[in-house]
Design goal:
single chain; 275 residues; Fumarylacetoacetate hydrolase, domain 2; globular
């Protein structure tokens, strides 16, 4: 198998997910030249196949939204994956159910989700300008998945496998207006979140964990896509899941997960894991 042939690798990864395998050797372990450019070529092939099957890409999921991680992994920016009309779900009254029976080794991450209203500002570091092109934001649960042994991989491997996004649960949206942007800028950098499994807190985090603010994470994504000639820029109406606020946690059938935030006007979110 040619690890840099997008179609061959897309075939292999799709078959692995279909069989719920978790024993694949990452492409970078077979070919040290396998990089993010090669990974995004695989991602683009998977998007093409999803569209051909009738499912539209509706947004992007951000990964590795931490500059300390960038230094450790030799990244220049965050990474991203596409989300689809059949993998994004809106919770009713902030409660949802998800059956991960077709997933391999799913984990959960609380994140801030944005709906893009228009073109992003050129200055990715200006949170107010970034929010000026946002329609709403919400608390969300991102479910990530992995076909590699023991969740061990390089960023390019995870991008290629679309492990960054298996499903997204979106809570009640909070509308962004010119009047509340200054408050949101402050709150997004400071709010805290508690992640609980069956009522027991198993993870805590903050908006600062996503590039010091999820708004800045959104701005960096828009800038990174603009710098990449092969990437599609953000467009109006897209959803962006802006990077995990806590350490990701494995999920299993029968569990109830909740996320509660403090310091920002977003309701808590509950996800019941079905069989």
């Amino acid at each position: 198998m040619h690890s840099r042939d997008p179609r061959a690798l897309a075939d292999e990864l799709s078959a692995a997910y279909a069989a719920r395998r978790t024993d694949l050797v990452p492409p970078s372990a077979r070919d040290t030249a396998f990089d993010l450019a090669a990974a995004y070529a695989v991602e683009a092939e998977l998007v093409r196949r999803r569209r051909a099957s009738g499912h539209a890409a509706v947004g992007r999921k951000v990964g590795f939204a931490n500059k300390a991680v960038w230094r450790a992994l030799k990244l220049e920016t965050l990474v991203w994956a596409s989300m689809y009309d059949d993998t994004v779900h809106f919770a009713e009254r902030n409660v949802a159910t998800l059956a991960p029976s077709r997933m391999c080794a799913p984990k959960i991450e609380p994140e801030i989700v944005f709906k893009v209203r228009g073109a992003q500002a050129a200055d990715a570091a200006d949170a107010a300008a970034v929010l000026g092109a946002v329609e709403w934001l919400a608390l969300g649960f991102e479910i990530i998945d992995c076909v590699y042994v023991d969740w061990k991989f390089q960023p390019a491997d995870f991008v290629a496998a679309q492990g960054l996004h298996a499903a997204l649960i979106v809570g009640e949206p909070f509308i962004v207006t010119p009047g509340n942007i200054p408050t949101l800028v402050e709150q997004l950098a400071k709010f805290t979140v508690a992640l609980a499994r069956n009522g027991d807190v198993v993870g805590e985090g903050s908006g600062r964990n996503a590039l010091r603010s999820p708004a800045l994470c959104l701005g960096e994504l828009a800038a990174a896509l603009t710098r990449d000639p092969g990437a599609e820029p953000l467009r109006a109406g897209e959803l962006v899941s802006s990077g995990t606020l806590t350490e990701s946690k494995p999920i299993r059938a029968g569990e109830t997960w909740t996320a509660a935030v403090d310091g920002i006007a977003l309701p808590g979110l509950t996800l019941q894991i079905g069989g």
